[in-house]
Design goal:
CATH class: Alpha Beta
Number of helices: 8
Number of strands: 9
CATH superfamily: Vaccinia Virus protein VP39
CATH architecture: 3-Layer(aba) Sandwich
Structural class: alpha/beta
Order of helices and strands: HEHEHEEHEHHEEHHEE
Strand content: 15-25%
Radius of gyration: 18 Å
CATH topology: Rossmann fold
Shape: globular
Amino acid sequence: MLGHTDRERRRLTLQAEVLNPLTADFLERAGVATGMRVLDIGCGVGDVTILAARLAGPTGRVTGVDLDPGALAISQARADEAGLTNVEFVQANLMDYSAPEPYDAVVGRHILIHAPDALTVLRHSIAQVSAGGLVAFQEYDLSRCYPNFPAKPLYDRVCKLFVDFFTRVTHADIGMRLFQMFHDLEMSDIHSRAEFIVDGGPQCPFYEWMTETLRSLFPKLQALGIATAEEWDLDTLSDRLKEESIRIGGYISAPIVVGTFGRAS
């Protein structure tokens, strides 16, 4: 949905700066541990792959799968820079990829929201792990925004735009649906948690992250008549969001993230 441009890869890096602490905690709570073989589907620029590789350690192995060769090149370079020798990256469509042998775990972050049939993608992912294997997914709930305090009109407008768009074009509430989807697929030992990060101030990464997300979405927003170029000056938006947040004070909230994990039957 967001494309495969250099700017989109930059957006993924900004997103990771915000979400990686949540994901690292999530993978550890889920049970990704030393010696495990882990599959990361839709790995993008490799953030979740690298987090899983550090937990799996030198005796484990993590495979990242993605369709975008540019993102995979970045992933490999980052893994090399981090000195990780227990990772590999495969270019493939998720639904075409089949594990040569079952993995101990399959993980994914913000993948199902882009899938026309999220349940089918989840079912295919589960098929890549052994019986009793770990399945752990993090997805947004973009059907709502937690209120900022005090209210910040410009930031609130951006958040509402995202909610309007994702509610119209996809399953915006996919994060909140994970718990039931795991039950529908007869998984066991299911755990789920919704959380989000609040921030603000001069060093907050949200301003550029939200701006670049809007930039990636803008052609589709225009096509749907949700936004026009006259309404949004994307080249100055990050600075305007920053100025507003500092001037008003308080916090701004990132989108709600739901992490759900369980065991394959």
